[in-house]
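Re: that backbone. Tokens:
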């Protein structure tokens, strides 16, 4: 493998964009439900989940998980099944 090929391969791996699950505020779900669901679906600690719930409440949305699309899809589905508003971007 030449030096040129090594550099080209390195650039490809570092520019790969990660996807994000964005959780949106709603008028239906309680803080406790959002926190419990983030712990269950996204494997957050209770502190992480509480911070995300507060951000969603005051800012309207919050990125709750990043990763590959294949990794995020089942997690986002769990959030949606629990009645939360979320999408992968």
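Recovered sequence:
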């Amino acid at each position: 493998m030449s030096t040129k090929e090594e550099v080209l391969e390195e650039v490809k791996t570092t520019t790969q964009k990660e996807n994000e699950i964005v959780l949106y505020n709603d008028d239906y779900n309680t803080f406790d439900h959002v926190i419990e669901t983030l712990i269950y679906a996204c494997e957050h600690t209770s502190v992480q989940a509480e911070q995300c719930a507060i951000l969603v409440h005051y800012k309207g949305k919050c990125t709750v998980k990043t990763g590959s699309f294949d990794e995020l899809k089942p997690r986002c589905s769990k959030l949606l099944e629990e009645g939360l508003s979320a999408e992968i971007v």
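Residues 33 and 82 are 9 Å apart (CA to CA). The chain has a mean pLDDT of 90.
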